[in-house]
Design a protein that fits this description.
Layout lengths: L1 E5 L3 H12 L3 E6 L2 H10 L3 E4 L5 H6 L7 E4 L4 H13 L5 E5 L23 E3 L1 H14 L5 E5 L4 E7 L14 H4 L5 E8 L2 E3 L12 E7 L3 H7 L9 E5 L3 H13 L4 E6 L2 H10 L4 E4 L5 H6 L7 E4 L4 H13 L4 E5 L6 H7 L3 E3 L1 H11 L6 E7 L4 E7 L9 E2 L9 E8 L2 E3 L6 E2 L4 E7 L3 H8 L7
Parallel strand pairs: 1-2, 1-4, 2-3, 4-5, 5-6, 12-13, 12-15, 13-14, 15-16, 16-17
Antiparallel strand pairs: 7-8, 8-11, 9-10, 9-11, 18-19, 19-24, 20-23, 21-22, 21-24
Amino acid sequence: MRVIICGADLVGSSIAAYLSKEDNDVTVIDPESDRLVQIHNIMDVNTVTGHASDPDILNAAGANDCDLIIAVTENDEINMIACQIGHSLFGIPKKIARIRRQAYLDPSWSNLFSRAHMPIDVIISPETLVAQSILQKLAIPGTTTALRLADGKAYLIGVVCMEDCPVLHTQLCQFDKLFPDLSFSIVSIARGPQNIIPDDDDMLEVGDEAYIVVDSKHLRRVMAAFGHLEKEARRIIISGGGNIGLSLIRKLQEEVSGLQLKVIEHNEKRAQYLSEQLENIIILNGDTLERGIMEEASVATAETYIALMNDDESNILGSLLAKQYGCQRVITLVNNHAYYPLVGPLGIDAMISPKSIIVASIMQHVRRGRIKGIHNIRDGEFELMEIEISDSSSIANKNIQDLDLPSGVVIGAIIRDGEVIIPKNNCSILPKDHIIILASSEKARLVEKMLCVHVDLF
């Protein structure tokens, strides 16, 4: 597959890394040659210096025989024009664009992106995606990760095993006897920097982060089994009233009742704008690193503090201060992947990685086969795939024990006729099954090949 990626920032370079590792012909366009040199030195891609909205630049990048264009520059208008030119002049069959400005996404203007006007096949809204991810974490308190799967029939949750976790030092093969009426499976264990695909003899240790696929009907009971009985937060402080913060607030107001929301915004003009846009929300203008503003926000009695500022260091430090002042739980947005290993040991309860969320959303539309969803786990260490099995799939009508799955790949659940099945070795996979597969990043391509149905390209 020939792919043009417009934009070489964190998102663009991450997508290029994914696709280039999987034997695709990838070309990256960016006006900053330094970025392109850095990318070219670490991955097997072609590069073209220039603006992606320039037809000559797109032509030089090979748009004439391109299968897919992914426009993820930091400029919405360039992304839209690149897709328009890719369609009108070069006939590129699939076009994906990152659109950040909410005015473009207003339902009133939905006709803008129709095939007759600006034919973009997939629009990625970072603010909406990140806000939705935070909303899921708030809905299931005590989780480091909370992913809704199979239209809500199942979840992937991440939980840290504390000293009081009831299932510590218990072989995983014993869990069926301990919890015979609960449908869940542990698909991965993070132990410090180590990522483990567990077998039946493995045991959970203090500090482990267990990733669990669970039937939604059993979610609360499974959380309790792992020592997490936290209640949903009703007193929430949001630090940072930018586009992500505003999108989150509006989603919370639409979907959750009985909340007491407070927002701390450093920029005075933005704080004034928020106060004009939002009702029944307390807006405080100040710096979250100052004790006075945190006390004014009553952080000591808050159940959750959410750090959504544009600066990673401020988000991390603000979160640590909120915990020190008595806040029960903190959720922290972090862009720089160099900080990810530090977040858990520092005591931050859940981390939000916009890059991982956006990349996973885009990759969902790139993968072949009947892939209904892709989620990044631990900043891309693993991919969680939701896949519908077709009649012509190579694994249809086979037992799991006969699949010869490579190491680093595990089937976490099968959804069949609306019911969640935790698979055993003698369990068969049938056409129309919806399966949940966890694969290490280097094995994701093997899973795609194993399940690929060529007529389902894109």
